[in-house]
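Today's session is about reading a structure prediction critically. Students often jump straight to the picture, but the first step is always the sequence itself: look for stretches that repeat, for charged clusters, for runs of hydrophobic residues. Only then move on to the predicted structure, which in these notes is written as discrete structure tokens rather than atom positions. Here is the chain we will use throughout the hour.
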Amino acid sequence: MNNFDLHKPLPYYLQFYEKIKQMIVNGEYEAGQRINETQLAKAFGVSRSPIREAMRLLEKDGLLVADQKTGFIVYSLSTEDVEEIYQIRTALESLAVELCITRASDEELFSLSSC
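Below is the predicted structure for this chain, in token form.
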């Protein structure tokens, strides 16, 4: 009796959050494209409420930008965003190399040099 796990199904808005997020990541919605919650609700055959909640979560995640007139727009990276991402990546990769050098044994470093 102690090994019983109750699995609650995910609320609709979280299911739509995952689906819309997947569609954005897979390129089904392109950067700058407008997404209409009414059209999505019709396509999924549900009310607008769970779609609206999902889109608000996606806005919090930075994948969508609210537009007063048309609903939401898929976020588009700016030049500054790309530059910042590369700066962060450079810092992380430099730290990874530094840690590898200080923590790796001579054998491990030698095996890396032969790659």
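Discussion point for the tutorial: The first helix runs from residue 12 to 25.
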